[in-house]
Each structure stands twice: as C-alpha cells, then as structure tokens.
Design goal:
The protein is mostly helical. The protein is built from 2 helices and no strands. The longest helix is centred in the middle third of the chain and has 12 residues.
C-alpha cells in the first residue's frame, strides 16, 4: 500500500518516517532498501574487489 503515492521527491522523507512509525508499534514490519547516488556508484565501480565465485 502506497500512502504517499505520486507526491514527488520533495516529500521523499515521508517514506522512512512512515516505516519508523509503523515499526515502532510492533504490529507490522517494513523493509527499506538503501539506494546509492550516482557519485557513490561511480566510487564503488572504481574500487578493486578480489572475489571468486563458488566452484571457481
């Protein structure tokens, strides 16, 4: 259910505020997904990571 549907970025802080209020009651759970800015994504893509997939 989207309580703040079509409100635009100006009121984006309402989403986490609603999640905190809902979770504080203990009657429901919410999930939030942190998003990266373009600058944060660029920095992450420039980093070197040593990773080998399973079975490789």
């Amino acid at each position: 259910m989207h309580l703040f549907k079509n409100i635009g970025n100006a009121k984006l802080a309402h989403y986490p505020a609603m999640a905190f209020a809902v979770c504080a009651t203990g009657l429901a759970r919410t999930n939030t997904t942190p998003l990266l800015t373009i600058e944060e994504t660029d920095k992450a893509l420039q980093k070197s990571v040593a990773y080998t997939g399973p079975g490789k």
